[in-house]
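Tokens as discussed.
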């Protein structure tokens, strides 16, 4: 039976050694808590790190570690102290975490820790590959494992791989600063589906892919040479019923509340003071220090709330080997001390501060007892605490104040949404929360609960898995039209048997890959030899048919006696002959069009005009991809309006717009060329829109091939210019 393999840095259980025996405790953090129910309900395994390094695990306990993991349907990845230093405390949490949360000043770019990150991703890949069986689906989680999809795909192209990023994906301007940006993007693109919490993270990722790797991105699909990668947003939900049920039980047994007991013990004798809850891992991205300062500002701005409110703050220890986290701990300790010292009275402590993690029951106690939750991250992928707080409010009272910088804010607009850097706004939101009528609290929470209950973690995981399985459908379409071996054999068979054969070959993007400067794309020696050798076969004609100008084509192929067709069919150089115009064309329109193109060159950096005898081309390959596409579509509209009455046509090529006589195109050129001749084998290959005319106009029996995975009228497609070269070699050897 096929299974789902979940992979994350940490397993949902963390192992410790206590008295020479293995002890397991649940992992904290949104990923582990959220995925736990998905793991429980699926027939799957979870691969990750146990929390124990190889050095910490004595020889005699190695089997016990494996057993403890196995009992929880987990498979451990064995890591050394050095691995954890470079991979977890290093690249993951000193480079990626701060960078992706826009803390540029905390970001370290260390080559050694990146190398360890690569090595550790390989260790994860090894364990995954050992555990994959046919039909399994792989779901990789989070920023610690961004190279893993590619490592798995390389070995197991048959396996479907999903990746979910739990933290924000930063804007291109921030991401581009990473020295290993290409490697990270390529690693992620080993996936079939990549998921983010919000649309903003998704669009930032797509923008980096198109700018850095220059891949074609269309809406939410990235076209690679042989696959399509789908990208989408899936806001992670929580196990709603688990929290709501636990809260209901807790409410029914009021005396269970530790907080209440604390109040009853008169540790603090202002039991009526409303409680403001704050829960996070102690992480600078969570805005804890700012939150305390904003609370101080609130008490100063609205002194009437002194002794009427209390901030209950749970900070869970996290990544304490990273210096920034140690500094933050110090800062928070000092702030809490200073503010309590400044405002406390004999009967009132303004902040109750806990620095530890709490078991589930105590969390429920905190959630249900506090009238307000104040969550003010500076950046946060999602923030599940916000959702858990709302889910536990069984009578629907309670006010959530949430930072607009948390992914959760996008779905929780009924909360009081604040900017975490605006103390004025936070202070006012706290006042509003304190004074909010119960009816309004209920109204807001009703909407929030309904949504959280519906899109719970199970629905979220289902949604992701369905989309992942749908990607098979897309790759099936790709497989259906990609030239199969038997189709290729059939074509070469027909070629060999034929007594009169013709091959129409497009040049750029087909015989040669694209380069930034078109003049640098001259044919290499191997290509020249191949073309010469095919052409020299008996009864075989090779025609290079290109949009290029005749001088360039003529120079590159001057010593090879093949037919050349330039400028989409305007010029022809027959075998052994001279260039001649095939049609009587006008070019007086150029005077009107050139200034328009020049205007677009001036406004769009990286673009330029190519002048041919009978056409003008505006190239935008080197422009910013988004701007290039936008300007191209704008220019195309302008040119089409202008050309309507002039028998001019606008050709949309590969990053080029070409304006020329509309009666000229490659389809017409090939039709004229084969007219009256009895070729028994016809072949055409090309990569862009201008080649579509050939594919459409050649008779049905022709073998037509598109280079690259795009919509086409050709019968087949091949991946790239390397595959074209393979085909040429086979023609030459036939
Ligand atoms: O494993 P740690 O280094 O101790 O960190 C705990 C987890 O923190 C991060 O959680 C993120 O995932 C949550 C659920 O999607 C999301 O709500 C939150 O905003 C994120 O910060 C981290 O992404 C996980 O990998 C860690 O395990
Ligand atoms: O003592 C604690 C405090 C919090 N949590 C859980 O940790 C998760 C925190 O997730 P969130 O998305 O808010 O932030 P993250 O820590 O993942 O960045 C939530 O599910 C909490 O219930 C926990 O297990 N023990």
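Sequence:
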């Amino acid at each position: 039976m096929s299974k789902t393999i979940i992979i994350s840095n940490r397993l949902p259980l963390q192992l410790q050694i206590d008295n020479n025996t293995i002890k397991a405790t649940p992992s904290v953090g949104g990923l582990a808590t959220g995925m736990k129910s998905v793991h429980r309900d699926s027939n799957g395994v979870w691969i990750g790190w146990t929390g124990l390094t190889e050095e910490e695990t004595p020889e005699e306990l190695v089997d016990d570690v494996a057993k403890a993991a196995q009992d929880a349907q987990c498979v451990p990845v064995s890591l050394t102290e050095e691995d954890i230093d470079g991979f977890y405390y290093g690249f993951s949490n000193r480079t990626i975490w701060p960078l992706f949360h826009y803390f540029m000043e905390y970001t370290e770019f260390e080559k050694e820790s990146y190398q360890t990150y690569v090595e550790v991703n390989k260790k994860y890949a090894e364990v995954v590959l050992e555990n994959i069986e046919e039909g399994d689906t792989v779901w990789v989680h989070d920023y610690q494992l961004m190279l893993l999809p590619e490592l798995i795909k390389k070995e197991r192209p048959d396996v479907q791989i999903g990746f979910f990023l739990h933290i924000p994906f930063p804007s291109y301007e921030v991401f581009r600063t990473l020295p290993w940006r290409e490697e990270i993007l390529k690693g992620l693109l080993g996936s079939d589906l990549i998921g983010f919490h919000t649309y903003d993270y998704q669009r930032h990722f797509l923008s980096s892919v198109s700018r850095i790797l220059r891949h074609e991105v269309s809406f939410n699909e990235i076209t690679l040479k042989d696959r399509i990668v789908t990208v989408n947003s899936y806001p992670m939900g929580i196990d709603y019923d688990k929290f709501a049920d636990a809260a209901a039980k807790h409410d029914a047994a009021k005396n269970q509340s530790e907080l209440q007991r604390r109040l009853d013990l008169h540790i603090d004798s202002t039991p009526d003071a409303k409680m403001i809850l704050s829960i996070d891992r102690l992480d600078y991205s969570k805005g804890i220090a700012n939150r305390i300062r904003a609370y101080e500002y609130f008490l100063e701005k609205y002194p009437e709330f002194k002794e009427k409110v209390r901030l209950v703050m749970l900070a869970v220890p996290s990544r304490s080997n990273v210096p920034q986290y140690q500094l933050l701990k110090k800062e928070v300790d000092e702030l809490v001390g200073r503010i309590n010292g400044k405002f406390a009275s004999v009967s009132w402590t303004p902040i109750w501060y806990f620095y530890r993690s709490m078991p589930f029951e105590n969390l429920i106690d905190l959630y249900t007892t506090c009238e307000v939750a104040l969550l003010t991250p500076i950046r946060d992928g999602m923030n599940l605490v916000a959702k858990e707080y709302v889910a536990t409010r069984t009578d629907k009272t309670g006010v959530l104040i949430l930072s607009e910088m948390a992914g959760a804010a996008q779905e929780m607009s009924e909360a009081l949404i604040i900017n975490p850097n605006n103390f004025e706004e936070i202070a006012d939101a706290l006042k509003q929360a304190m004074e909010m009528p119960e009816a309004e609290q209920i109204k807001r929470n009703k909407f929030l609960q309904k949504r959280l209950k519906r899109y719970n973690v199970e629905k979220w995981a289902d949604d992701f898995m369905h989309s992942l399985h749908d990607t098979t459908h897309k790759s099936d379409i790709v497989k259906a039209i990609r030239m199969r071996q038997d189709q290729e054999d059939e074509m070469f068979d027909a070629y060999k048997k034929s007594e009169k054969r013709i091959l129409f070959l497009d040049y750029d993007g087909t015989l040669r890959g694209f380069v930034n400067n078109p003049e640098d794309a001259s044919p290499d020696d191997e290509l020249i030899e191949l073309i010469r050798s095919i052409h020299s076969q008996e009864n075989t004609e090779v025609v290079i048919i290109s949009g290029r100008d005749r001088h360039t084509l003529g120079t590159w192929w001057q010593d090879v006696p093949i037919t050349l067709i330039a400028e989409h069919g305007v010029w022809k150089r027959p075998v052994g002959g001279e260039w001649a115009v095939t049609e009587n064309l006008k070019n007086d329109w150029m005077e009107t069009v050139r200034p328009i193109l020049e205007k677009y060159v001036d406004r769009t950096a990286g673009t330029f005009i190519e002048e041919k005898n009978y056409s003008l081309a505006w190239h935008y390959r080197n422009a910013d991809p988004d701007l290039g596409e936008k300007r191209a579509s704008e220019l195309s509209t302008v040119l089409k309006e202008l050309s309507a009455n002039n028998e001019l046509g606008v050709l949309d090529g590969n990053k080029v717009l070409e304006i020329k006589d509309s009666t000229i195109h490659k389809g017409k050129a090939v039709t004229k060329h084969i007219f009256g001749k009895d070729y028994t084998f016809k072949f055409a290959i090309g990569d862009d829109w201008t080649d579509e005319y050939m594919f459409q106009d050649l008779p049905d029996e022709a073998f037509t091939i598109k280079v690259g995975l795009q919509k086409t009228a050709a019968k087949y497609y091949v991946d790239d210019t390397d595959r074209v070269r393979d085909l040429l070699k086979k023609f030459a050897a036939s």
